[in-house]
């Protein structure tokens, strides 16, 4: 465009110069003509003509000058227009360049931000790896006091009255504000210990949580006998444990809700004494109800978490036994404690479990089963062992596993576990190894029978009756001669009847429930056979299947086995033996995909030879010299040395 404009401008200048040159030549010619001498004898007419010609020439020259001036003016106008267009174009290009530079600057800034973010992420990952690799992390984390842990948990949960994201009227800025909020409850009392209000000592507490003996025998005498000038002096004269001085409003709230009393020198003081006068009404350790044994310890956990931890510490009095505390529950504020042996439990398992527990958010935690389900357990098979026996917990801790205690629950969770751990009874270690191995085989066969017996009955009668021996076939024909239902409906009817009796017996009082289970089973079974609703052979099979499902030592695994019968009945009805095979294929696939604390749940795959010494068989204790590989303990070898009874002398001796 610029070159075209320059060419046009050059052509216009050349045209203007040519026009000027022509006009100049004409003027010179006319001037010469006028200067030439004229003939005196020329007639007058010729003179007049020459004058007229001169006038016309002058007029022509004037017109030419005007046209030249007009052309020059038009050329200048075009030049100005072209210059203005060029200027506008130049400005537009300049703006484009500025925009491009601004975009480039912005892009560079974004690139720098991304680089900074990637550098930060890399740095964060490196720090995370370093933290995981540093063994001092666990020690530093364990040194945090429970008070700080509780305070951080409550601040993160956002359910405390000290969360300043709430409206201004709900804020608590002083101890007096906290006491005013506590007084809104009818069971909270706050009073002066003397009729003279100028005397010190104000006491406040929740009346239902009060232990009258502690209050009248230990706390009140110290308040009434002497007048102290400071809380530190008063604390020395209170003959009680668990007495602290604090001005932390969050801690004061927590302790008062747990049964502590607030003692102030004066009503407006911000610092106070917290005295533990809570009533201890927990039951003493009793015999485990759901995991009874004939031989072995008869000591079970209770609802008090401190009592449960003490029961384990009595059995494992070592410094390596460590605990970590987490508060879970938006409203219940339930204390959850992890327990493990520091020199045996894998640190990765401990860190992962602690992080998982801190992520859990739920309104109320009533039992350890809440934790079990909130940890992501969605399978029909339990991925945590739920036990109330102290000996089972101590054995698991020595194998490098982790125990989870929940305040208010007598059941303790054990993780990581494998499928075979659910068929191991603590009594197996109190009897001979041969009988223990036989018992474990019997349990595994009973589980297989409980799952397959009724589906096999349906599959054989529906598709494969030719597999039945002729003598037994005649008996089956006679037993089903008056039954109007197909085998599937008959089997489901009896299975549901057995489950109804079991549920009814569990919900009724113990003696009534046992009587109902026995009498109800006999009466309903006999009546259904006589009425022609079921066959007597199927009644025997269903009863044996129910007994086989109760043989598992862990209650939740027995529930899973009982539930598996119903889908296998459908597979048997749809495909016979092929359908049952398909059901087992799906079952094993599901088992192989399960994991407990990121460890394989089914030890058949991948197989580990060390774990077979104490899984579906039990070798003598002196031969079990390795720990359970499932938990990946830090030290696999364990002490296993006994006295050999093998004779080393000759027969003659």
Explain what this protein looks like in three dimensions.
The protein has 653 residues and is of the alpha+beta class. It has four domains: 1-17 and 61-136; 157-276, no CATH class; 316-415, no CATH class; 433-600, no CATH class. It has helices at residues 2-35, 44-133, 136-142, 146-157, 175-182, 212-225, 231-236, 249-257, 305-315, 347-359, 368-374, 390-398, 433-462, 470-479, 487-507, 510-530, 536-549, 555-593, and strands at 188-192, 202-206, 244-246, 260-264, 272-276, 321-328, 334-341, 385-387, 402-406, 412-415, 595-596, 599-600. The strands form three sheets. It has a five-stranded antiparallel β-sheet with strand order 1-2-4-5-3. A hairpin with a 5-residue loop joins β6 (321-328) and β7 (334-341). It is flat, with a radius of gyration of 49 Å. The N and C termini lie far apart (125 Å). 25% of the residues are buried. One of its GO terms (cellular component) is membrane. This is Spore germination protein. InterPro entries: Spore_Ger, UPF0353/GerABKA_families. It is found in: Membrane. Residues 1-12 have a biased composition (Basic residues).
């Amino acid at each position: 465009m610029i070159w075209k404009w320059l060419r046009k401008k050059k052509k216009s200048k050349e045209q203007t110069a040519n026009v000027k040159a022509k006009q100049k030549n004409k003027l010179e010619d006319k001037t010469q003509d006028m200067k030439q001498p004229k003939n005196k004898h020329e007639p007058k007419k010729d003179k007049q003509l020459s004058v007229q010609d001169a006038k016309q020439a002058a007029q022509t020259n004037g017109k030419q000058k005007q046209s030249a001036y007009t052309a020059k003016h038009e050329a200048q106008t075009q030049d100005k227009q072209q210059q203005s267009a060029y200027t506008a174009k130049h400005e537009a290009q300049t703006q484009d360049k500025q925009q491009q530079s601004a975009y480039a600057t912005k892009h560079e800034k974004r690139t720098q931000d991304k680089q900074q973010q990637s550098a930060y992420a890399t740095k964060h990952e490196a720090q995370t790896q370093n933290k995981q690799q540093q063994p001092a992390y666990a020690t530093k984390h364990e040194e945090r006091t429970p008070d700080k842990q509780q305070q951080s948990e409550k601040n993160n949960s956002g359910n405390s009255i000290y969360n300043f994201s709430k409206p201004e009227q709900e804020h608590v800025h002083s101890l007096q504000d906290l006491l005013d909020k506590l007084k809104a409850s009818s069971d909270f009392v706050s009073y002066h210990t003397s009729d003279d209000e100028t005397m010190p000592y104000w006491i406040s507490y929740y009346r239902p949580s009060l232990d009258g003996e502690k209050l009248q025998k230990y706390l009140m005498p110290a308040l009434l006998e002497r007048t102290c000038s400071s809380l530190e002096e008063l604390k020395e004269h209170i003959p009680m444990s668990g007495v602290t001085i604090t001005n932390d409003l969050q801690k004061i709230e927590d302790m008062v809700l747990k049964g502590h009393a607030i003692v102030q020198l004066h009503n407006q003081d911000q610092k106070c004494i917290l005295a533990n006068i809570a009533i201890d009404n927990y039951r003493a350790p009793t015999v485990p109800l759901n995991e009874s044994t004939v031989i072995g310890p008869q000591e079970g956990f209770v609802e008090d978490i401190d009592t449960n931890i003490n029961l384990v510490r009595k059995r494992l009095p070592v410094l390596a036994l460590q605990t970590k505390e987490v508060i879970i529950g938006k409203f219940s504020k339930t204390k959850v404690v992890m327990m493990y042996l520091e020199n045996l439990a894998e640190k990765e398992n401990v860190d992962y479990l602690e992080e998982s527990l801190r992520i859990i958010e739920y309104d109320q935690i009533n039992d350890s089963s809440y934790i079990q389900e909130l940890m992501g357990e969605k399978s029909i098979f339990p991925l945590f062992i739920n036990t109330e026996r102290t000996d089972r917990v101590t054995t698991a801790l020595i194998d490098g596993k982790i125990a989870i205690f929940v305040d208010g629950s007598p059941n303790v969770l054990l993780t990581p576990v494998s499928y075979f751990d659910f068929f191991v009874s603590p009594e197996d270690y109190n009897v001979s190894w041969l009988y223990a191995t036989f018992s474990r085989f019997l349990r595994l066969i009973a589980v297989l029978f409980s799952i397959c017996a009724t589906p096999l009955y349906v599959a054989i009668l529906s598709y494969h009756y030719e597999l039945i021996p002729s003598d037994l076939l005649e008996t089956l024909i006679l037993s089903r001669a008056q039954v109007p239902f197909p085998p599937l409906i008959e089997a489901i009817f009896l299975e549901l009847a057995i489950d109804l009796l079991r549920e009814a017996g569990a919900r009724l009082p113990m003696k009534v429930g046992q009587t109902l289970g026995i009498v109800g089973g006999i009466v309903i079974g006999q009546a259904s056979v006589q009425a022609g609703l079921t066959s007597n052979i199927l009644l025997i099979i269903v009863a044996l299947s129910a007994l086989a499902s109760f043989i598992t030592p862990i209650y939740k695994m027995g529930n899973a086995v009982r539930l598996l019968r119903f889908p296998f009945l459908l597979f048997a009805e749809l495909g016979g033996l092929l359908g049952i095979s398909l059901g087992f294929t799906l079952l094993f696939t599901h088992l192989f995909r399960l994991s407990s604390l990121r460890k394989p749940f089914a030890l058949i795959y991948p197989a580990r030879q060390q774990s077979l010494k104490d899984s579906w068989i039990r070798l003598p204790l002196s031969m079990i010299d390795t720990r359970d590989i499932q938990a990946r303990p830090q030290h696999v070898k364990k002490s296993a040395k006994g006295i050999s009874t093998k004779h080393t002398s000759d027969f003659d001796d």
